[in-house]
Amino acid sequence: MEVIRNVAIAGASGALGSPILNALLKSELFNVTVLARQSSQAQFPASVKVVRVDYNSVPDLTAALTGQNAVVSVLTTSAMETQIPLIEAAMKAGVRRYLPSEFCANIGNPKAASLPVYHSKLAIHEAIKQQARDHPHFTYTLIRNGPFLDWSMAYGFFFSLDGGSTPFYDGGDRPFSTTTLATIGRAVVEVLRHSEETRNRAVFVQDLVTTQRKMLAIAQKVAPDCKWTPSDVSTADMEIMARDKYANGMVDLAASMGFFCRSVFGEGYGGEFQEVDNELLGIPLKTDADLEELIRGLLQYPSSEGRAVLNPQISDRSLKRAYRKMGAVTLELSKHEFDSIGALEENERGFFIAKRPFTFNMNESMVSANLPEEVFPFQTLCLLEDLSDHESKLMEQLLFESQRLSPRMKDSMETGLFWVCLAARYSSMFDEIYWTFIDRRYYGTFSC
Question: Where does the NmrA-like domain lie (predicted)?
Answer without folding.
Answer: 6-221
